[in-house]
Amino acid sequence: MLLVDLDPQGNATMGSGVDKRQLARSVYQVLLGSATPARRSPARRPATTTCCRQSRAGGAEVDLVDLDDRERRLAQALAPLEADYDFILIDCPPSLSLLTINGLCCAHGVVIPMPVRVFRARRAHRPRHTIKRVHANLNPA
């Protein structure tokens, strides 16, 4: 499994026990095209690989605005790695942003964790609406 932590807080990276300071590449660099995600060594098959550390991912939001195909930058970067992994897990920010749209544009499925409370469930239509729009316009897969 490959873990891609798009959330600027970096909780998925920290929660998986990875020291993000030890990772050579950042999501910021990958999204802007100045680095590619690290490929896994075939000889070393850990259960989970974190492809990049969180560094200035929030800054990527601003820098992505003027780039061509800004919604598909992550999909383009991860495409060469798809065959290397059974699963690629992408942790997105809890807000609708270009980082979240990038995650949705390369997703084959979506899990939305939310508390089971009636007043929160009423808001569940918002992410579904966004997912439907991305599916219709950017990622039919």
Short description:
By secondary structure, this protein is mainly alpha-helical. Helix content is 35%, strand content 7%.
SSE diagram, text form:
Blueprint: E1 2-5, H1 11-15, H2 27-32, E2 49-50, H3 57-64, H4 73-78, E3 88-91, H5 98-105, H6 118-121, H7 125-137
Parallel strand pairs: 1-2, 1-3
Structure write-up:
The chain is mainly alpha-helical and 141 residues long. Helices cover 35% and strands 7% of the residues. It has one domain: Rossmann fold (3-Layer(aba) Sandwich). Strands 2-1-3 form a three-stranded parallel sheet. 28% of the residues are buried. The mean pLDDT is 79.
Shape: globular
**What is the CATH homology-level superfamily?**
P-loop containing nucleotide triphosphate hydrolases
Helix-strand category: mainly alpha
Helix content: 25-40%
Q: Name the average pLDDT.
A: 79
Give the low-confidence spans. none
| CATH fold field value | Rossmann fold
Number of domains: 1
Give me the side-by-side strand order of the main sheet.
Answer: 2-1-3
In quaternary terms, these chains amount to single chain
Jot down its keywords.
141 residues, mainly alpha, Rossmann fold, 3 strands
